[in-house]
Each structure stands twice: as C-alpha cells, then as structure tokens.
C-alpha cells in the first residue's frame, strides 16, 4: 500500500522527517518497505506559464512555445499536441536530468540546448513520462491554474510516498485514515477525520431497492441512488492522489469510489442504475451455469459458492471482488447506484482462489473489514460526488444491517504490564496511549495488589484485540519496544524426561532388529482399495472389534492427494505392499513397522494407538556355499517365534496364543494373541487370495499386527520384580502329554506351569507325535520342564509329587494323560 505524505497530512500533522517516520511506524508493527521521493531528481525544473504558441517556421508538426518561469522567459520547440497559451506547465531548463519519453526501456538524459529544424530550443515542456510520474507521453503535463509560476516543480508537485507492507492482521491500517491514526498515536498529534453531511434516508420500501438473500455472506449492504451526475475526468488533485497511491484515474465517479477505498479502507462500487434490470439490487449466491463478463472484459463462470450482486434478472458484479461490464459507469451515465457493503471474508477468499483473480477490493474484504465502516464511507463518497457533480442529488437509500456489530470490552489489570513486560508505565500514560488509538478507557479501583483495572472499550474495527495481552502490546509498541530494558531470562531449566511410551517403542524396534528384521516407514494416509486388498472377498474387516466391517475409518476433508482420504486403521496393508515390492529384488524379506493407527470414535478425534506390524517371506536360509538349495520358506512358526521372543524380552505377563480366524490369513494357519484373555493381536500365514491381491509370488508369506498400546499399558501397570537366581542345581524332567488334536500346545504348557508353580521355572515344547501309539484324533506333546527351588536342592520325592500334581491337573482340565 502506498501512502503519500501530502494525503496523510490531511489527517494528522506530520512533523517527523520521512525516514524517522518510517522507522517509528516499522517499530510499531506497520512495516515500511520503501520510501519513494517523488521529484527529488527534478533539478532545474520549474512551474512555467505558456504565454504564446506559434507555428514552427520549418516544421508542420512542431510549434514554438514561449514560456515564462519567474524572471526566465524562453522559447522551446515542442511537438506536444495539447500545448496552448495560458497553460501552467513543467518547464525543464538546460542541465535538467529527465527520463527519455521515447524509449521503451528506462533511460535518463541530460537536457542540452539544441537547434531543432533551425530554431534554437533553450528548454523543454515535460510530459508525465519525462518527469517519471507515469508512462503517459502523448502530451505535456498541464498543471492546475493555481500553480505558482517560477516555483521549483519539486516544491509544488513533489511528494514522499511510503510503501507499506500490510499484514493480514492489520486490516485496520489498510487505508490512509488507518495509517494516520497510527501516526497520531505515535506522535501524540490530533487526528483530523474529514466530516461529511449525514445521508438522508429517503421514504419508500427499501426492498424495492435492495434485497439480500444470503445474509450469512453479506452482513451489511447499503445502497445510495444518486441522480443527475455528470461523468467526466476527475480534477487534477484527485487524479494526482490516485496516481501517487498506485491507481490510475478512470472517470470522476469511479475515481471517487477508489479514492474513498484508499482513504477509509472501505471498497465501494458504482453501478449505472439505468442499466440494472428492475433498477434494483439482489444479493444472492450465484446459480449453476451463470456467467458474468467482468470489468476486465473476461467472461467468468460462476458457481453456487460465490456471492453475486445481481439485478432483477442476472449477475452484475462479483461481491467484493470485481464489477460487471454490463453495468459499469460510462460517459452517458446520469443515475448511479452506489454500493457500500460488507462481505464475509472467507467467502471472498474462496471466490478469489476459484477465479485466480485478485483486486484491491478483494485484498481488503479478504482480511475482514469492519461493517461499521460502510455508512461513513458512503457519506464521504456522496460528498465528493456532489462536489464534482454540482447537479447530483440523493433520491433513495437502503441499509440492510440486521445484526449490528457492537464494541467489545476488554479488562486490563494494571499489573499485567509489569507481569508481561517486566516494566511498568504511569497509569495516565497508558490510558492516554489507548485513547489515542481510539480505545475507550475507564479506570476502576479494585483494591487488588496489582493496582487499578482499566476497562477498555475496543472499537469495532480492531478485530485483533481480544484479550489483555493485546492491550499491553498496543501500549508498548506505541511507547517503543526499544524502551524495554535488556534483561537476561531467569528460571530453572526443566529436567529432561524421556517419554516412556517412546522408550517402549524404541525397545520394541531394538528387539525386532536384533531378531533380523528391518524397519520400514509408510505413509499415514491410505485409501479403500488398498485396505480391501487385505481381504480374500474384497471387503476389508478389522480385527480390533471382531468381524464388524470397519469402514468406520477416519476420513479427511482436505487431503494431500485426492486418492488418500483415510487415516490408516491398520498397518498390515502397507507392510504387505512393501513386502511385495522388496521381494522383486531380494530372496528373503523380513520387515516390521511401529507406527500409530487411527481407530474412529463417534463424534471425537480418532483413537491413535501405537501398533506393530510384521511381514516375512522367502527362504528361511540362503543357498549354501557349495550351491545347495535354499532352505524351507519362512512360515507361521517363524513369525510366532519372533513374537514370542519379543514378548519374552519385554517380560509381558499374561500373554497367550489361541487359534485365530482372521480373514486375511490362511485357514488353519492363523492365531490370536491374547493378553489376560483379551485380543491384542493377530498373526498367521497370508491367505493365497490376499497374497495374489498384493502381487506376491511366493510359496508362503507371514503377516501379523499387534496392539503395542495394550502391551505398554500392561507393562506400566505391572511392577518389575527381580528374582534372585537359585544357587542350587535345577531338575529337568520330560513330560509326554497325550491330548485331543484340537487342544493347543500353549494351553498344555500353561497348565503344566500352573500346576507346578512356584517350582516350575519353564516348560518348552520340543516334540509332537501323531500315530497309532496315541490313537486317532490324538497327539502327543513332549515338554521339557525345568524345576528349581530358591533355597534348596529338590529331592526325588518332591519331583515325584510335582509329576503327580501335573498329571492330575492335566487330566482334570484337559482330559490329558501322561505317556509312560
């Protein structure tokens, strides 16, 4: 945003030098990116008056202009088509440094006295391009009639322009008035706000003029009908100010709307009312298929998410962004409908993104403008239009504003300054600064140790001030951050504490890496087709809650990729895909992943649970040194061994294995992992159809998933006990147990250990036999059981009683017998 100091001085007396003012503004949070000195290079350029114009004796397209500038009077040769006697012009004398008006590239020239077609020219009457004001060079710059003849042009037309970077939170400073308010607060100078006569509220039904059908996108819409306007060029002072601020002049009506936008920060738009169907405005969402030719003469397709300003039949503007070509102000316009409105900033941003169109109005509306600006800006614009068009008159007004915005009150305990800044300021100074920033301040004695309470009324345009800390910031930025004392921070550094959950996850990784597996990391997002590959029937189900179809997965609204819309409810799909990809290059792959899964919860954020997935495939051992064949493929028992090693190293109590039936696994080669009887994991050999879904071309592949969150909770709730090793010799006994075929070996092992506790140290299965000697439907499981007593060597009769107890318990629980 460009702020000419000459314009700024209409609102506040600026006594600081431009560089000092820029530094003060920047330190107060309003960043000045650059300072442009307009006219600083205009040496030997003066305000001149053309006394007479005569034809050039030797050239039809040139004339001789006699120009007086104070005591100087000289003749210049010019081809400008608009030069005429009586004009005030910019006269450059010999030695002046000017821009080349006939070069497409910026180039500076030093003016010299030359003979042009036989006539000596002692100077030049300058165009705007030659002075560096604009690219206009078709004619000379004609100055206002009150320009002082003989005065240096730098003194008369020169200016200083501050180029500001307005961040999104500073929309209240996105205007000349807003910056003036900052300067007034910084320099303790009074603020002069231009007054405007109040607009009359014409009689009649306002619905005949304005109807708002989308109040959620348009909190306020005011319209003023002005008849009898005369459209033409704006006066020089208005064009000059717009030019310095970075806008081009169009016509007096359009220029007034831009002028007020720059001055007050409230965008306006003027419609030719006679070109509006029904001579009225309807504010509504665009309808499917509607199109609009905008002021830049581009036809744009609208969608129902866009707010359109319409007449009785069709859209005539895009709300808060750009007007339409069908209703723009032209030379024949006599009746104007002036729009001053407030639009939802999120809707404006969405429209700008959809159309890839940015305008000065959208830049302001997209930051959130105060609805209370609407009517004062309309009054200011009407005043200017009346000044430029003396015959103009207001015949109707409308102001749709169903829910007026009210100022909020924020309490500022005086002690907050000391608490937040480490320094305090006099109470009167604090109240004065807030007052200069247009805050209302009431001081109330509270009797609290921190001192009085400042009850601050925040103006409606300060959306960024919502709490006491914001008010403290306002005070200190006006006083100056550089006034804060430099102090070293105090306090004691917190003792570092390692996250126990993270330490647990790292321990799991270390154990599995030691078992020969490699860790992989996949993306957190997935999609339905990837999950469905885990099912032989093409419909994935979760094991977390039984066989319930689980497309209760957590879906995202705004994703990185259009096909990734789901937070992973399982790790198995991605480790299977990674397994298949790596088997293209390696004979054997053993991988695992330790990452969270996201299980949906009704009306809440998903349950983020730390989970382990393991996948293995390929030969158990590679080919031998002398060319022998590779070993048997990895199978169910290899994966089971890895999980058992993991549980043993973690010392997880209460874990057991039971027959499983998860659909992703081969029937009869699947198991459930239980913890105190609760399901905490599944594993097994992959179903052939599932392997085919992932493109696996191996004899066997194993897969498993384990809820590490449940293991961690169990370990956290179980005290770690140290057991002193016995110094006495252990006794090892073999037990051959005959049981029904369907009885799991794990259940037999657990029965043996239970029966012989506390003297049974371990029980290891080392053989399985099926045959005639045990009978049909039976099997014999051979266990090696180690007995140990902490305080003595076990006697033979003690071991005999243990065998009898084990045999009795096996018979009672499992109807099992011991083989002799």
Tell me what the structure shows.
The protein is of the alpha+beta class and 820 residues long. It is built from 20 helices and 40 strands. It has a 7-stranded mixed sheet with strand order 28-31-32-36-35-34-33. Strands 3, 4, 5, 6, 11 and 12 form a 6-stranded antiparallel sheet that branches.
Provide tags for this entry.
820 residues; alpha+beta; 20 helices; 40 strands
Short account of what is shown:
With 820 residues, the protein is an alpha+beta fold. Helix content is 25%, strand content 28%. It is elongated, with a radius of gyration of 43 Å.
Number of strands: 40
Return the structural class.
Answer: alpha+beta
Main beta sheet: strand number and arrangement?
7 strands, mixed
- Please state the overall shape, judged from the principal axes of the Cα atoms: elongated
Strand order of the largest sheet: 28-31-32-36-35-34-33
Rounded average pLDDT: 90
End-to-end distance: 99 Å
In which range does the helix fraction lie? 25-40%
Beta-strand residue fraction:
25-35%
| Total of helices | 20
Poorly predicted ranges (pLDDT <50, ≥5 residues)? 546-550
* Integer-rounded radius of gyration: 43 Å
